[in-house]
């Protein structure tokens, strides 16, 4: 029995030792599994951090400077850029709005210091000077196939506004078009189509009310000069000859266009001091019902949305009356136009492929859709699809009718754009003022502009 007890005791101790060993093995296994789990979790976290870090490290930032624009444009662009950045982790857009008034100075200064962004969004008339200086690159030189894929989306005449010497430099979103006649339909049932009809309608309106029959904008401002250029180009006037080596702004077609201004002023058919009324003020006079007719550009509707004193007259918008028999040496232009919000690739971009990826989006209807009249009012859209939108018909019923007839852009040409034009237009602004104030006769004023401008052309052509 003692032996049996001893054997039982040994058996119990063995079982106890075995159970203890099992417990120790279990604890060790559990500890080992914990270590492994922690290791893999740490490894997973490390890999995740590494992946995120690499992803951020490989993400390319494309800087964009956007000059000018109205609030509705800024809001739309902010929305689309936010969407882009969420959907494209490899290319992040840093978009910033810049002051329109100092656009050329800022760009040229940044170019000289090597601090240009990747993309500029600004006006088409700056293209010739920027090409001459080497600020921007031709997009079709970078990726001809990509550029070709965009072309059919755009109105052909608008597409051509950003071409220079056969190269395509910028993607337009809309164009400013000039020159139009805006008229109060309560007073003018049928708008005039010729210069003589314009004078006759204005004379008929004079004295019938205390309102100004016809407002002309004749300050030194660029917009006012552009208004005159649109009227002059329709009369066969041009700044330069076909070779581009001679200033011809004193051609007969230009002289007669400026004479129209003088005739309206001396006939008492305009405001008293047109040299003090710029384009914006001229439109305000019409919207406040102080005037019956006015010159205008296509972005009249943008002004209309901002004028608090507007009495919301029922007004019409049509192409400005033309000389029944154009007297200039060059073809009559129906209207002249220029994009003022066009995407350009700078010569200093270090991420051309990424920048072109974004410009491909910039040219897409998804991005362009905002310029169909809603949410952005008062812009003449660049794409064909936007012209088919019911929203643009609400904003521009008169222009949509002309577009659908095929007459709005028929004979349209780009606004003047060549090196030295900015300085030349300051001379033209001075001439406008001197003529409407009776300080110079028309021919002498334009001869002087031509002589001074020829010197500028010679300088920039060296």
TrEMBL record:
Biological process, per Gene Ontology? maltodextrin transmembrane transport; maltose transport
Under Pfam families, the record lists:
SBP_bac_1
State the organism of origin.
marine metagenome
Assigned protein family: Belongs to the bacterial solute-binding protein 1 family.
Phylogenetic lineage:
unclassified sequences, metagenomes, ecological metagenomes
**Name of the featured protein:** ABC transporter substrate-binding protein
| GO MF terms held by the record | maltose binding
Q: Which keywords, in A-to-Z order, does the entry hold?
A: Membrane, Signal, Transmembrane, Transmembrane helix, Transport
TM region positions: 43-65
- What Gene3D superfamilies has UniProt attached to this entry? Periplasmic binding protein-like II
CC terms in the record's Gene Ontology section: ATP-binding cassette (ABC) transporter complex, substrate-binding subunit-containing
